[in-house]
Design goal:
The structure is a single chain. α8 runs antiparallel to α10. The protein has two domains: about 100 residues, Phosphorylase Kinase, domain 1 (2-Layer Sandwich); about 220 residues, Orthogonal Bundle (Transferase(Phosphotransferase), domain 1). The strands form three sheets. Strands 1-2-3-5-4 form a five-stranded antiparallel β-sheet. A two-stranded antiparallel ribbon has the order 6-9. By secondary structure, the chain is α+β, with helices and mostly antiparallel strands. It is globular, with a radius of gyration of 36 Å. The protein contains 15 helices and nine strands. The relative contact order is 0.12.
Protein backbone atom coordinates (compact mmCIF):
# COMPACT_ATOMS: atom_id res chain seq x y z
CA UNK A 1 0.00 0.00 0.00
CA UNK A 2 1.25 3.37 -0.91
CA UNK A 3 2.01 5.62 1.98
CA UNK A 4 -0.46 8.35 2.60
CA UNK A 5 0.71 11.91 2.66
CA UNK A 6 -0.29 13.87 5.68
CA UNK A 7 0.56 17.29 6.83
CA UNK A 8 0.76 16.08 10.41
CA UNK A 9 4.29 15.77 11.71
CA UNK A 10 5.79 12.41 12.36
CA UNK A 11 6.06 11.46 16.04
CA UNK A 12 9.61 10.27 15.31
CA UNK A 13 10.62 13.75 14.15
CA UNK A 14 10.02 16.39 16.81
CA UNK A 15 9.15 19.87 15.78
CA UNK A 16 12.14 22.15 15.68
CA UNK A 17 11.81 25.89 16.06
CA UNK A 18 12.88 26.26 12.43
CA UNK A 19 10.07 23.99 11.29
CA UNK A 20 7.67 25.93 13.46
CA UNK A 21 8.77 29.22 11.90
CA UNK A 22 8.43 27.83 8.38
CA UNK A 23 4.97 26.60 9.07
CA UNK A 24 3.96 29.80 10.79
CA UNK A 25 5.27 31.74 7.84
CA UNK A 26 2.48 30.21 5.70
CA UNK A 27 -0.14 31.85 7.83
CA UNK A 28 -1.10 35.53 7.44
CA UNK A 29 0.32 36.28 10.86
CA UNK A 30 3.59 34.53 10.10
CA UNK A 31 4.10 36.51 6.89
CA UNK A 32 3.85 39.77 8.81
CA UNK A 33 6.61 38.81 11.26
CA UNK A 34 10.33 38.59 10.44
CA UNK A 35 11.97 35.22 10.59
CA UNK A 36 14.40 34.92 13.47
CA UNK A 37 17.21 32.43 13.31
CA UNK A 38 17.37 30.68 16.65
CA UNK A 39 20.57 30.02 18.46
CA UNK A 40 21.94 26.53 18.88
CA UNK A 41 21.28 26.64 22.61
CA UNK A 42 17.63 27.57 22.10
CA UNK A 43 17.12 24.80 19.54
CA UNK A 44 18.67 22.21 21.86
CA UNK A 45 16.58 23.30 24.83
CA UNK A 46 13.37 23.22 22.76
CA UNK A 47 14.09 19.76 21.31
CA UNK A 48 14.93 18.24 24.66
CA UNK A 49 11.93 19.72 26.48
CA UNK A 50 9.13 20.33 24.01
CA UNK A 51 6.10 22.20 25.33
CA UNK A 52 3.19 21.74 22.86
CA UNK A 53 0.99 24.13 24.84
CA UNK A 54 3.46 27.02 24.66
CA UNK A 55 3.41 29.25 21.56
CA UNK A 56 6.06 31.74 22.81
CA UNK A 57 9.39 31.94 21.00
CA UNK A 58 12.04 30.94 23.49
CA UNK A 59 14.56 33.24 21.89
CA UNK A 60 12.59 36.24 23.21
CA UNK A 61 13.13 35.19 26.82
CA UNK A 62 16.90 35.90 26.80
CA UNK A 63 18.04 38.61 29.25
CA UNK A 64 19.01 41.94 27.64
CA UNK A 65 22.67 42.73 27.15
CA UNK A 66 24.27 44.85 29.84
CA UNK A 67 25.24 48.28 28.57
CA UNK A 68 28.31 50.11 29.82
CA UNK A 69 27.11 52.81 32.21
CA UNK A 70 28.07 56.41 31.31
CA UNK A 71 30.87 58.06 33.30
CA UNK A 72 29.67 59.28 36.65
CA UNK A 73 30.56 62.99 36.25
CA UNK A 74 29.34 65.68 38.56
CA UNK A 75 28.08 68.94 37.10
CA UNK A 76 31.45 70.73 37.33
CA UNK A 77 33.32 67.88 35.67
CA UNK A 78 30.70 67.61 32.95
CA UNK A 79 31.03 71.32 32.20
CA UNK A 80 34.83 70.96 32.14
CA UNK A 81 34.59 68.14 29.55
CA UNK A 82 32.21 70.20 27.42
CA UNK A 83 34.63 73.14 27.36
CA UNK A 84 37.58 70.88 26.52
CA UNK A 85 35.61 69.33 23.64
CA UNK A 86 35.21 72.76 22.01
CA UNK A 87 38.89 72.93 21.04
CA UNK A 88 41.36 70.96 18.94
CA UNK A 89 45.06 70.93 19.74
CA UNK A 90 46.77 72.37 16.66
CA UNK A 91 50.42 73.22 17.22
CA UNK A 92 53.06 73.41 19.95
CA UNK A 93 54.43 76.97 20.19
CA UNK A 94 57.02 76.78 22.94
CA UNK A 95 57.73 76.51 26.64
CA UNK A 96 58.96 78.60 29.53
CA UNK A 97 59.60 78.14 33.23
CA UNK A 98 56.00 79.06 33.93
CA UNK A 99 53.89 77.32 31.29
CA UNK A 100 53.80 75.44 28.00
CA UNK A 101 52.04 77.31 25.20
CA UNK A 102 50.02 75.62 22.45
CA UNK A 103 47.93 76.83 19.56
CA UNK A 104 44.37 75.47 19.58
CA UNK A 105 41.52 75.87 17.13
CA UNK A 106 37.77 75.74 17.49
CA UNK A 107 36.10 72.51 16.46
CA UNK A 108 33.24 74.48 14.89
CA UNK A 109 35.60 77.00 13.18
CA UNK A 110 38.99 75.37 12.46
CA UNK A 111 40.44 78.61 11.08
CA UNK A 112 39.93 80.47 14.37
CA UNK A 113 42.98 80.08 16.62
CA UNK A 114 43.62 80.59 20.32
CA UNK A 115 46.67 80.43 22.54
CA UNK A 116 46.45 77.95 25.40
CA UNK A 117 48.70 78.26 28.44
CA UNK A 118 49.22 74.84 29.96
CA UNK A 119 50.51 75.65 33.43
CA UNK A 120 53.30 73.55 34.84
CA UNK A 121 53.41 71.97 38.26
CA UNK A 122 56.09 73.35 40.57
CA UNK A 123 57.65 72.25 43.84
CA UNK A 124 55.67 74.88 45.73
CA UNK A 125 54.09 73.11 48.75
CA UNK A 126 51.02 75.35 48.47
CA UNK A 127 50.44 74.15 44.92
CA UNK A 128 50.73 70.53 46.02
CA UNK A 129 48.21 71.18 48.76
CA UNK A 130 45.73 73.20 46.66
CA UNK A 131 46.38 71.55 43.29
CA UNK A 132 46.93 74.91 41.58
CA UNK A 133 49.56 77.64 41.79
CA UNK A 134 48.59 80.91 43.49
CA UNK A 135 49.90 82.93 40.53
CA UNK A 136 47.64 80.92 38.23
CA UNK A 137 44.65 81.65 40.44
CA UNK A 138 45.44 85.37 40.34
CA UNK A 139 45.79 85.46 36.58
CA UNK A 140 42.54 83.56 36.01
CA UNK A 141 40.65 85.70 38.50
CA UNK A 142 41.63 89.09 37.08
CA UNK A 143 41.47 88.15 33.41
CA UNK A 144 37.91 86.98 34.04
CA UNK A 145 37.06 90.37 35.55
CA UNK A 146 38.87 92.64 33.08
CA UNK A 147 37.70 93.09 29.51
CA UNK A 148 39.41 95.85 27.52
CA UNK A 149 40.89 96.36 24.08
CA UNK A 150 44.38 96.78 25.56
CA UNK A 151 44.25 93.82 27.96
CA UNK A 152 44.69 90.27 26.70
CA UNK A 153 41.34 88.46 26.65
CA UNK A 154 40.64 85.12 28.30
CA UNK A 155 37.89 82.92 26.82
CA UNK A 156 37.88 79.62 28.71
CA UNK A 157 39.66 77.57 31.32
CA UNK A 158 39.64 73.81 31.78
CA UNK A 159 41.74 70.99 33.21
CA UNK A 160 43.20 68.10 31.25
CA UNK A 161 41.65 64.70 31.95
CA UNK A 162 45.08 63.03 31.66
CA UNK A 163 47.33 65.06 33.94
CA UNK A 164 44.88 67.58 35.53
CA UNK A 165 46.97 70.55 34.41
CA UNK A 166 45.15 73.85 34.10
CA UNK A 167 44.60 75.11 30.53
CA UNK A 168 43.85 78.81 30.02
CA UNK A 169 42.46 79.79 26.62
CA UNK A 170 43.41 83.36 25.66
CA UNK A 171 43.75 85.48 22.54
CA UNK A 172 46.16 84.20 19.94
CA UNK A 173 48.72 86.96 19.30
CA UNK A 174 51.60 86.02 17.03
CA UNK A 175 53.39 89.39 16.95
CA UNK A 176 55.54 88.73 20.02
CA UNK A 177 56.03 91.26 22.80
CA UNK A 178 57.22 94.84 23.05
CA UNK A 179 60.63 93.83 24.37
CA UNK A 180 61.37 91.90 21.18
CA UNK A 181 60.31 94.85 19.09
CA UNK A 182 62.59 97.23 21.02
CA UNK A 183 65.59 94.91 20.63
CA UNK A 184 65.00 94.34 16.91
CA UNK A 185 67.51 96.65 15.24
CA UNK A 186 65.81 96.20 11.87
CA UNK A 187 62.57 97.71 13.23
CA UNK A 188 62.75 101.51 13.07
CA UNK A 189 60.22 103.70 14.87
CA UNK A 190 59.82 107.36 15.83
CA UNK A 191 58.22 109.63 18.41
CA UNK A 192 54.71 109.30 16.95
CA UNK A 193 54.96 105.51 17.23
CA UNK A 194 56.10 105.77 20.87
CA UNK A 195 53.09 107.98 21.58
CA UNK A 196 50.74 105.41 20.11
CA UNK A 197 52.27 102.54 22.09
CA UNK A 198 52.34 104.46 25.37
CA UNK A 199 48.75 105.60 24.87
CA UNK A 200 47.49 102.04 24.44
CA UNK A 201 49.41 100.77 27.47
CA UNK A 202 48.26 103.62 29.70
CA UNK A 203 44.62 103.16 28.65
CA UNK A 204 44.84 99.50 29.61
CA UNK A 205 46.49 100.42 32.91
CA UNK A 206 43.90 103.11 33.64
CA UNK A 207 41.15 100.52 33.10
CA UNK A 208 42.87 98.19 35.60
CA UNK A 209 43.18 100.93 38.21
CA UNK A 210 39.60 102.07 37.61
CA UNK A 211 38.55 98.55 38.58
CA UNK A 212 40.87 98.59 41.63
CA UNK A 213 43.39 96.13 40.19
CA UNK A 214 47.18 96.51 40.42
CA UNK A 215 49.20 94.75 37.72
CA UNK A 216 52.51 94.71 39.65
CA UNK A 217 54.67 93.27 36.87
CA UNK A 218 54.64 95.75 33.99
CA UNK A 219 57.62 95.52 31.64
CA UNK A 220 58.06 95.32 27.84
CA UNK A 221 58.13 91.53 27.97
CA UNK A 222 54.60 91.47 29.42
CA UNK A 223 53.07 93.63 26.67
CA UNK A 224 51.93 91.65 23.62
CA UNK A 225 51.81 93.14 20.12
CA UNK A 226 48.79 92.17 18.01
CA UNK A 227 48.79 91.67 14.25
CA UNK A 228 46.77 94.89 13.85
CA UNK A 229 49.27 96.85 15.97
CA UNK A 230 47.25 96.78 19.20
CA UNK A 231 49.23 96.45 22.41
CA UNK A 232 47.76 94.28 25.16
CA UNK A 233 48.83 94.00 28.78
CA UNK A 234 49.40 90.36 29.74
CA UNK A 235 50.72 88.17 32.57
CA UNK A 236 48.50 89.06 35.53
CA UNK A 237 50.06 86.41 37.78
CA UNK A 238 51.22 89.03 40.32
CA UNK A 239 48.11 91.22 40.11
CA UNK A 240 45.92 91.91 43.10
CA UNK A 241 43.10 94.18 44.22
CA UNK A 242 43.76 97.43 46.01
CA UNK A 243 44.19 96.67 49.72
CA UNK A 244 42.54 98.42 52.62
CA UNK A 245 44.81 100.73 54.69
CA UNK A 246 45.17 98.22 57.52
CA UNK A 247 46.13 95.32 55.23
CA UNK A 248 49.79 94.71 54.38
CA UNK A 249 50.94 93.82 50.86
CA UNK A 250 54.16 92.19 49.74
CA UNK A 251 56.97 94.33 48.34
CA UNK A 252 58.56 91.40 46.45
CA UNK A 253 56.77 92.14 43.18
CA UNK A 254 57.67 93.75 39.82
CA UNK A 255 60.82 92.79 37.93
CA UNK A 256 63.84 94.49 39.52
CA UNK A 257 64.64 96.98 36.74
CA UNK A 258 61.04 98.24 36.70
CA UNK A 259 60.48 98.21 40.47
CA UNK A 260 59.74 101.60 42.13
CA UNK A 261 61.81 102.90 45.07
CA UNK A 262 59.04 102.44 47.67
CA UNK A 263 59.07 98.69 47.04
CA UNK A 264 62.87 98.56 47.15
CA UNK A 265 62.61 100.19 50.59
CA UNK A 266 60.09 97.57 51.73
CA UNK A 267 56.82 99.51 51.66
CA UNK A 268 53.83 97.35 52.65
CA UNK A 269 51.17 99.90 51.65
CA UNK A 270 51.09 101.26 48.11
CA UNK A 271 48.71 101.99 45.26
CA UNK A 272 48.72 102.49 41.48
CA UNK A 273 51.89 104.56 41.61
CA UNK A 274 53.96 101.36 41.49
CA UNK A 275 52.55 100.59 38.03
CA UNK A 276 53.05 104.18 36.84
CA UNK A 277 56.76 103.97 37.76
CA UNK A 278 57.05 100.81 35.68
CA UNK A 279 55.37 102.62 32.78
CA UNK A 280 57.95 105.41 33.10
CA UNK A 281 60.75 102.85 32.79
CA UNK A 282 59.06 101.40 29.70
CA UNK A 283 58.82 104.88 28.12
CA UNK A 284 62.51 105.51 28.82
CA UNK A 285 63.40 102.14 27.28
CA UNK A 286 61.33 102.85 24.17
CA UNK A 287 63.19 106.13 23.64
CA UNK A 288 66.74 104.85 24.20
CA UNK A 289 66.10 101.22 23.13
CA UNK A 290 67.79 99.91 26.27
CA UNK A 291 66.76 99.69 29.94
CA UNK A 292 67.09 102.99 31.80
CA UNK A 293 67.95 101.94 35.39
CA UNK A 294 69.25 98.37 35.31
CA UNK A 295 71.58 96.79 37.85
CA UNK A 296 73.78 94.49 35.73
CA UNK A 297 73.29 91.22 37.62
CA UNK A 298 70.57 88.67 38.02
CA UNK A 299 68.15 89.68 40.84
CA UNK A 300 69.43 88.21 44.10
CA UNK A 301 69.81 89.01 47.79
CA UNK A 302 72.03 92.01 46.96
CA UNK A 303 70.23 92.99 43.74
CA UNK A 304 67.94 95.47 45.49
CA UNK A 305 70.91 97.33 47.02
CA UNK A 306 72.62 97.53 43.65
CA UNK A 307 69.41 98.71 41.99
CA UNK A 308 69.02 101.45 44.60
CA UNK A 309 72.61 102.56 43.94
CA UNK A 310 71.90 102.82 40.19
CA UNK A 311 68.67 104.69 40.91
CA UNK A 312 70.56 107.07 43.20
CA UNK A 313 73.08 107.89 40.47
CA UNK A 314 70.42 108.16 37.76
CA UNK A 315 67.81 110.35 39.45
CA UNK A 316 69.38 111.62 42.68
CA UNK A 317 69.20 110.65 46.34
CA UNK A 318 65.82 110.15 48.04
CA UNK A 319 65.78 112.19 51.25
CA UNK A 320 63.24 113.50 53.71
CA UNK A 321 63.43 116.86 51.91
CA UNK A 322 62.16 115.47 48.59
CA UNK A 323 60.24 112.45 49.95
CA UNK A 324 58.75 112.98 53.44
CA UNK A 325 58.63 109.73 55.41
CA UNK A 326 61.13 107.78 53.30
CA UNK A 327 63.47 107.15 56.24
CA UNK A 328 60.65 105.38 58.12
CA UNK A 329 60.21 102.68 55.50
CA UNK A 330 61.19 99.19 56.79
CA UNK A 331 64.17 98.59 54.49
CA UNK A 332 65.40 102.15 54.11
CA UNK A 333 69.15 102.37 53.51
CA UNK A 334 70.96 105.69 53.46
CA UNK A 335 72.40 106.30 50.02
CA UNK A 336 76.00 107.38 49.58
CA UNK A 337 77.04 109.66 48.00
CA UNK A 338 74.14 112.08 48.34
CA UNK A 339 73.29 113.44 44.89
CA UNK A 340 70.80 116.26 44.23
CA UNK A 341 67.68 115.37 42.25
CA UNK A 342 68.30 115.58 38.51
CA UNK A 343 66.80 118.54 36.70
CA UNK A 344 65.50 119.12 33.16
CA UNK A 345 69.02 119.40 31.76
CA UNK A 346 69.81 115.80 32.73
CA UNK A 347 66.68 114.52 30.96
CA UNK A 348 67.56 116.56 27.87
CA UNK A 349 70.98 114.90 27.72
CA UNK A 350 69.74 111.35 28.28
CA UNK A 351 66.51 111.50 26.21
CA UNK A 352 67.47 113.71 23.31
CA UNK A 353 65.00 112.16 20.86
CA UNK A 354 62.10 112.89 23.22
CA UNK A 355 60.50 116.33 22.95
CA UNK A 356 60.15 118.70 25.93
CA UNK A 357 56.52 117.79 26.81
CA UNK A 358 57.45 114.12 26.64
CA UNK A 359 60.39 114.64 29.00
CA UNK A 360 58.10 116.54 31.36
CA UNK A 361 55.68 113.60 31.38
CA UNK A 362 58.53 111.15 32.02
CA UNK A 363 59.81 113.20 34.99
CA UNK A 364 56.31 113.38 36.48
CA UNK A 365 55.94 109.59 36.18
CA UNK A 366 59.18 108.79 38.02
CA UNK A 367 58.96 111.14 41.00
CA UNK A 368 60.28 109.44 44.12
CA UNK A 369 57.36 110.38 46.37
CA UNK A 370 54.45 108.16 45.21
CA UNK A 371 51.93 110.71 46.54
CA UNK A 372 53.25 113.29 44.06
CA UNK A 373 53.70 110.86 41.18
CA UNK A 374 51.21 111.09 38.32
CA UNK A 375 48.34 108.62 38.24
CA UNK A 376 47.42 106.66 35.12
CA UNK A 377 44.59 109.10 34.47
CA UNK A 378 46.92 112.06 35.03
CA UNK A 379 49.31 110.63 32.44
CA UNK A 380 46.51 110.37 29.86
CA UNK A 381 45.43 113.96 30.57
CA UNK A 382 48.93 115.34 29.92
CA UNK A 383 49.31 117.81 27.06
CA UNK A 384 51.88 115.60 25.31
CA UNK A 385 49.15 113.62 23.55
CA UNK A 386 47.54 116.64 21.90
CA UNK A 387 50.78 118.08 20.49
CA UNK A 388 52.53 117.22 17.24
CA UNK A 389 53.50 114.67 16.19
CA UNK A 390 50.16 112.98 16.78
CA UNK A 391 50.13 109.26 17.68
CA UNK A 392 50.45 106.91 14.72
CA UNK A 393 47.38 104.93 13.72
CA UNK A 394 47.78 101.41 15.10
CA UNK A 395 47.41 99.83 11.66
CA UNK A 396 50.51 101.72 10.48
CA UNK A 397 52.76 100.98 13.45
CA UNK A 398 56.08 99.16 12.83
CA UNK A 399 56.01 95.39 13.29
CA UNK A 400 58.44 92.56 13.64
CA UNK A 401 58.51 89.48 11.45
CA UNK A 402 55.77 87.01 12.32
CA UNK A 403 57.19 84.43 14.71
CA UNK A 404 54.81 82.23 16.65
CA UNK A 405 57.45 81.30 19.19
CA UNK A 406 57.49 84.89 20.41
CA UNK A 407 54.13 84.52 22.13
CA UNK A 408 55.25 81.31 23.79
CA UNK A 409 58.32 83.05 25.21
CA UNK A 410 56.24 85.94 26.49
CA UNK A 411 53.47 83.84 28.05
CA UNK A 412 55.65 81.02 29.32
CA UNK A 413 58.01 83.26 31.29
CA UNK A 414 57.58 83.33 35.06
CA UNK A 415 56.36 86.48 36.78
CA UNK A 416 59.12 88.87 37.75
CA UNK A 417 61.66 87.00 35.62
CA UNK A 418 64.20 88.76 33.42
CA UNK A 419 64.76 87.65 29.86
CA UNK A 420 67.91 85.55 29.51
CA UNK A 421 69.38 88.00 27.05
CA UNK A 422 69.54 90.71 29.76
CA UNK A 423 71.04 88.66 32.58
CA UNK A 424 74.54 89.89 33.30
CA UNK A 425 74.32 92.83 30.90
CA UNK A 426 76.28 95.91 32.04
CA UNK A 427 74.62 99.34 31.99
CA UNK A 428 75.87 101.56 29.20
CA UNK A 429 74.58 104.90 30.47
CA UNK A 430 77.20 106.91 32.38
CA UNK A 431 75.19 108.79 34.98
CA UNK A 432 78.31 110.13 36.63
CA UNK A 433 79.19 112.15 33.56
CA UNK A 434 75.80 113.85 33.45
CA UNK A 435 75.11 116.75 35.78
Amino acid sequence: MAPTTSSAPSPLKPLSPSNQNIQSAKSPIGRSLPLRKPSLKTATDTSSKPDPTSHQDTSMSRPPKKRKPPPDYDMAELLNRQIEAKYNKDKYLGSGTYADVWRYSLVSHPSQFFAVKKFKFTDDPKQREMGINVDTLREVKYLQELSHENIVGMYDIFSDAKDSRIHMVIEYISGGDLEMLIKDSSCAYGLADIKAWMGMMLRGLYFCHSNFVLHRDLKPGNVLVGEDGTLKLADFGLARSFASPEQNMTFMVITLWYRPPELLFGARHYSGGVDVWSMAMILAELVNRRPFIAFPVEPSQTGEIGQLDYMNRALGTPLEENWPGVTKLPLYVEQVPKIPLKDKRFFEQVFRTLDEPGRDLLRAMCIYDPRKRLTARGCLEHEWWSLDPRPTDKTRLPKRSKEEGNMAMALGRAQGELDDKFKGVAKKLDFGGMK
